[in-house]
Amino acid sequence: YTRLGQIGLFRFEGVTQRSIVIEQFQGVLSLLPSVPLGAPATVGTREGRSMRSFALPWIPHDDVILPGDIQGQPALGVSDAADPLVEVMNRKLQLMRRKHAQTREYMEMNALRGIVKDGAGTTLYNYFSEFGLTQISVDFTLGTAGTNVQGKVREVLRAIEENLLGESMVRAHALVSPEFFDKLISHPKTEDAYKFYSATGGQPLREDVRRAFPFAGILFEEYTGSATLSTGAAERFLPAGEGVAFPIGTFDTFTTYGGPANLLEAANTMGLPLYARQHLDEKGRWIDLMTEASILPVNKRPRLAIRLHTSN
Known about the structure:
It is built from seven helices and 19 strands. A hairpin with a 6-residue loop joins β17 (about 275-280) and β18. It is α+β, with helices and mostly antiparallel strands.
């Protein structure tokens, strides 16, 4: 679930406020200074421009260390020593950071596709509907043997290039669901190309070569990210039979904005990706572990992320 983070698609940028104002002009979203407290969220349309104010979602996550977490518990790898407090604390903090990382990947993957959801799966913002834009979708019809798959790939590449709108790119990348990937590599128009790639790119009987397939200018990569939402329901980051293509090497298209923590000492300071602190109970009965993040991923050119799907 950390593939987007590994690619480095969304860069992080801290802001000093708990909300941002985004202006849309000719399909490009840009950040504006925050509005004064109490100003309306919708500024309106003027000279073909529209502006919206977006609150940065606040994502707190707490845990606690109790005496029972330490009492009688052996240290890792040591059978006759009590587990030090610092080890228990580090393990709990590591788990909390992983939950935040998973939440950020979930939010960024959805933002790449033009929407922002929270950890409960609730849609917070839809950048297409907010700014009156339409998503570009390409149906690969991989269930039809005669489909010109190269032509479909060129259609995707041209759509990306036409919507760069002043941006630059190095190459095109596509994250696709396992169902889409299986149909792509088994299609009569691509099967031979995939066999040649898997045979020359490694040892197909020993190595896992199913993860990526470069074809006609796009690197198709199987993406299986999923998570358990706060509601208890499991959700895949990409719907079955779908994918998303996007440019790699942009300068200012994919950004995750982070606001300051909900702390007095953090007010009006530049936001960080994650905050963590501890608080010892005044009577020594427990230690509270508190983490929080206020992040909002933004795809400033929503039409650059091309929806891929196959209708058969």
